[in-house]
Structures are given as C-alpha cells and as structure tokens.
Specification:
single chain, 350 residues, alpha+beta, Bactericidal permeability-increasing protein, domain 1, Alpha-D-Glucose-1,6-Bisphosphate, Chain A, domain 4, 2 domains, 7-stranded antiparallel sheet, 6-stranded antiparallel sheet, 5 helices, elongated, ATPase activator activity, ASHA1/2-like_C, START-like_dom_sf
Length: 350
C-alpha cells in the first residue's frame, strides 16, 4: 500500500468546496421547462411588431408545448429544448382589422434561430389581410426570431450558473472570482467534439447530390463487430428511440420508417433511413454536420445471428478521405463500445 501522499494522482479524488461532482465529471441536469414557458410568454405575448407605418400585435399564445433541460457532462454544457408554438396576431390596414396566426412547429437546438420555420396564416382573406400577411412574413418573422434568439441566449446564461462548479483553487481566496466565458460552450456527447460553426443539415437528403464546385477524394469503410446478444436485440439498440438515446447519451430525433430522418449527437450526425429489414439490415444516408453542403455518405448495416452471438457488418461509402480515420474511430467508440456498455452485449477477445 502506498504511503499517505504518495498515491497515484490519477486515483486521488479532488476536494471540492461543495464536496460533490468532482471535476464536474458526473451528468447533472436542470429542468428548464417552467422557466422557459415563463420566458417565452414574456417575450412573445403582447409583442408589438411595427415598421413603415404598419403594426401588428401578438394577442395570445395559442399553443406552447415542449420542454427544455440544461445539462453538464464532464465540464461541458449541453442544452436541449424543443417547442411547438402557435401565436395569434392582430393588425389593421385601411381601418380594417386583420387577424391571423404564426406557427413555429420546431424551435430546437438542432437548428440555428435564423433557420427556424415560422409560418404566417390568416383567419380570413381579403385585400387588407393579404397586405398584412406580407408585412408579417417580411417583417414580423424576423422580429419574432430576435425574440426567440433572446430566449435561447438567456436560457444558456441563466442555467449555466451552478452547473459548472469551481475547483478548490478557484475559491480559496474570497477575492478570487471564477472567470466566466461570455458564451456557454454547447457540446453534445459523441461525434466531433471540436467547436465548429456547423452548417445546418436540411431534412431533404439526397445521396446522389454532391457539393457543387468541390471534388472530394472519397473512401469506403468496412467493419465487422461481434455482440453477445440476439440479432433482434442489436436491431432494437440501433432503431428504438429510447435505446438510441441511451447509448448516444443525449436527445435524438428518430423517425423509424423509410424516408424518415434521424439526428444524433446534438446534430453532429444526421441522415435518413433508406431501407429497414427488421433484425437483419439497416440502410441510411449519413453525414457529419461539418461536411460540405450537399454531400452525403451511405451506411449499410447487416446483422447476422450466429449460435451464441450476432455479427454486425458495416459498409460506409463516400466518406471524404480526410475523415476516414475519424469516422472509423467514432463508430468504434460512440456506437459499438457505447452499445456494449449501455446494454451489456459484451466484448470478444478474439
């Protein structure tokens, strides 16, 4: 046994002023839903949109469905939020009152705020209402996006407090105040952890399209993995939303049907299901968020059940050569190893 003070530093638990969550390693979560509802109501209900002599007012929030959480994992902040909002608005043109709605079907962390869909509709159609509809489309949507952006910024600022705890050497002196970054860094677990200004992936995925003006050196990746489980159990792990959420350790978008979209790892991986053969085969279009616009790869997973285990054969085509090694490592670490750990499917020595 090592003498006191001579132990391996990797095994020494760091003291914390609060004696909890050493090095911010453990997953901690705050429910931001009630706060978010109050904040969105304050930002949107009664909001006045005016420009060039025209004016519209948000008279009521007809729907505010969704949830929000703020999380800390290994010292990194992760925010999940998803809202479906319907706003009622009223305006006037040439002494005629005009009413309508603005629908925001998916305000979430998967999209930048300037890409959030806002649909403008009218309660009745006439020449005056059409004028106001154009006003709401051209002016109202942008002003509402600024209100949504305020919500997102304040969510991250308010809920970052207390999630990342100071280390002991940051609070020994009462005059020392831990420095804060102006912006909360948002990472999802898993693929592609480096901070990049990613380009948002649209849901219209076409693997035949290639980035215009770019010539990519494309490679193919093949992997064979063994899992100590039946093929239906492995198929479930790859296709059931609750199980995908478990092994990716974060919010996912998952539409399990041909043509359905998926978004994993905080938006860093996305694609579409092209073929689904229960317990046997999955074919997807697949891309990293930082790949050139319009470029998609093709993933095929074939499951073969043996007497005491299941073999998974992966074929991943059209990977840019510069990303081949990264992709292989990420499949290994964030898919196969994570699935074994999460569901106890075991590892083979040979």
């Amino acid at each position: 046994m090592a003498k006191w003070g001579e132990g391996d530093p990797r095994w020494i638990v760091e003291e914390r002023p609060d004696a909890t969550n050493v090095n911010n390693w453990h997953w901690t979560e705050k429910n931001a839903t009630p706060w978010s509802k109050d904040k969105l109501k304050s930002l949107l209900d009664g909001f006045v949109i005016s420009e060039a002599g025209l004016e519209c007012t948000i008279t009521k929030i007809g729907k505010l469905d969704g949830e929000a959480t703020a999380n800390n994992r290994k010292g990194k902040l992760i925010f999940f939020y998803e809202w479906n909002i319907v706003l009622h608005w009223k305006g006037q043109f040439n002494d005629q009152e005009v009413t309508g709605q603005v629908t925001i079907p998916n305000l979430s962390e998967e999209n930048d705020v300037d890409e959030v869909e806002l649909t403008v509709s009218l309660d009745s159609s006439n020449s005056a209402s059409e004028k106001m509809k154009v006003f709401m489309y051209n002016v109202g949507r942008e002003k509402l996006r600024k209100q949504l952006d305020t919500y997102i910024r304040e969510l991250k600022a308010d809920f970052a407090k207390g999630l990342i705890l100071p280390k002991k050497d940051e609070v020994n002196d009462t005059e020392k105040v831990p420095q804060k970054n102006d912006k909360a860094t948002v990472f999802a677990s898993g693929f592609n952890k480096k901070k990049i200004d990613f380009e948002t992936v649209t849901s219209a995925i076409d693997p035949t399209k290639k980035a215009t003006g770019l010539k990519l050196d494309l490679k193919e990746l093949k992997m064979t993995e063994k899992f100590q489980c039946r093929s239906n159990e492995l198929f479930d792990a790859l296709t059931r939303e609750d199980m995908v959420t478990a092994f990716t350790r974060g919010h996912v978008k998952h539409e399990l049907f041909k043509g359905g979209n998926f978004v994993y790892f905080g938006g860093n991986i996305s694609g579409k299901f092209e073929e689904i053969v229960p317990n046997k085969k999955i074919v997807q279009t697949w891309r990293y968020k930082d790949w050139p616009s319009g470029h998609y790869s093709s993933v095929t997973m074939v499951l073969e059940e043996e007497e005491d285990h299941t073999v998974l054969k992966l074929s991943h085509n059209m990977i840019p050569a510069s990303d081949l090694e990264r992709t292989a490592q990420n499949w290994k670490q964030y898919y196969w190893n994570s699935i074994r750990t999460a569901f106890g499917f075991g590892s083979f020595l040979f």
